[in-house]
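Many introductory courses stop at the sequence. We go one step further.
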Amino acid sequence: MKEDTIAKIKEETDTWAYMANLPAKWHGFVLQREPVIGKDKYDLYRYVNEDWHKSAIVYFHEETHEYKVRLKIGLIEFVRIEFITGKLSVFEELLTNQFEQVLKDMASFNPATLSSIVVDKKLPEWQWGSELPAENEGFTLFIRPAEPVKINNGSYIVIDYVDFALESSFTVYYNIYRDEFFAEARIWNIPDVNYDFDANDLQELEEKLRTRMLPRLRQVRGWAEEQKETHHGSD
């Protein structure tokens, strides 16, 4: 990150009363005040719950010269677009009005976050989805269809099987704009996409998951295990 950008952020936020008065603990999350400066991101602070594998990060993005909030849920990280602004005063207003609710929704499922399209799709009451095992091929069911997680661009996480030790996962999404289910794997947090699970309704998705999910989980685990030594050697 450019030195003049760092200086600008420090100047704007060193006396920022809102940040100075944040609670140390908030809805199960712990405040971490230490700034983290990356290639193009300046993380001002974050609220973290390590046990839940969830965090909310407040930061400045050099590429767009805007203040933003990004969430990390499991291995998936995304920006909450309603907080994006170039002015700190506007950012404070947005945070004051909406950030606490973000933490509440991360702490416990809020049905109000579901689009009517998702509800009409009968996702929360999907019988087969409710019977998914808590553990599958060494992966833990982190997100289940009864409690889909809204991310961005009209997508929801429907199923998320994660092995946090291997930083690997298998995730099923639903996009309300395309009215389509699709899936993505991560191997050491690097996305690996195929189209084997693309579906337009729950029945089609269920048929594909019944026959293809276990082989895909085994494949992801195999690749992750193969790369384990290389990955750790590069740390």
